[in-house]
Structures are given as C-alpha cells and as structure tokens.
Amino acid sequence: MTTSRLDALLGATTDLQEGVYIPRLKTDFIVKALDEDTLEKARAQATTGKDRSVDESLFNRLLIVKAVADPDLNDKALRDRYEASDAADVVKKALLPGEQSRVVQALLRLSGFVDDAKLIDEAKN
User: Fold this and answer.
1) Domain range holding 110?
2) Which of 4, 24, 26, 99 is the most core-located residue (most Cβ within 10 A)?
C-alpha cells in the first residue's frame, strides 16, 4: 500500500483548472489551482496597518487575479473600461460580490480546500 500512495503522490499534478460559469456574463472564467507560495504572497499584499490585519476583500480579489487564467484580468482594455488602477480593482469593479465568491470558492476547491466551512475560514485568514 505504501508504494501505491507514493506512486500517487509522484504522479500527481498541481496544474488543475476548471471553468466557473458567470451567469450574468454568460461565460466561463478559467480558474487554476494556486500553490502555497502564491497564497502567502497574496496574504502579504493584503496585510495592512500596524496591527498587521488582513483586508479580506482585497485578499479575495488578489486570489482571483492570481487564479483566473482566462480572461486576463490584467488586460489594459479591462483596466481602461472600468477605470481601474490594477487587476484587483478590475475584479472589484467588474464582478459582483456573489460572482467574486463563486470564483474564490472554485479556486480554493481546486487548491485542495474541500470543506465549505474551511474554505470560508481559509479565505478570511
């Protein structure tokens, strides 16, 4: 049994993607799994103030930017259309809160967080 577990780990891929349908836009966003380093960098970017608190909304928007493979949320046309300063601002201005939540849930699920309660806690922390 140990060999098959080892083989499973050796043969595993972290290059996971899935489409997340956004009904209002009538299209899928292609979302990919994120690794721990990417999650930590997003958390660091969203950490502010003397108390080092995490801005949960910004953290979620940064996760979306890093996980959405298509469309390219860094596209200049999107920034111009939404008068956004960066890709995270595009997410804030272009996607409704429920749409953002749908994408975050998918990217966390792809990244190995499978329990809904755990998804919410991890996104907040």
Assistant:
1) 15-124
2) 99
